[in-house]
User: What shape does this take?
Amino acid sequence: MRTVLAASLVLASMSVVASAQHAQHDDTVWVWNARCDHPTKIALQVRLDGAAVYRSSLPICRWGSSFEKGQATFRFTPRRSLVWYGYRSDEGDSIRDVGDTTAANTPFEIALWQAGGETDAIELGFQAVARDGLHMNSIHVLWPTKRSATTMAPGLVLETWPESQPAPGARSRRP
Assistant: This one.
């Protein structure tokens, strides 16, 4: 009898866990998806030393988490060296992170993708890859209603903001 009762409790708990996971999978969250019916447009810009190296417009909307499909890539070649912190360094070695320096004119491919959707934001994943491998893999929090910026490497900044707002650094027109 104990075996039957224990088995019933295990099956019941597995059923509860499975239904909770299913509910989380279909939660309504912010998604980056070209198929959004009435999207909120988000401007995305990557700047190096203040100059734009990439610009795009992302269609986002509230939808089931299974519709998190957004992704993009671009290439650029900085004319100066870049120092990347925190990815290739050993965090537990108790030595100050001196960074991972890449030479001037090193071509990079930057990948962007939706890493996660939340009820109030999108977790935007990004990677920086050169011929010698991966130099950065991190997350930028994209807020549908406000600006946010993430430093990828000193001088290299990823920014997002609702397109209804002016671009960062844009001058306002005076009558």
The chain has one domain: 28-162. The first strand starts at residue 28 and ends at 32.
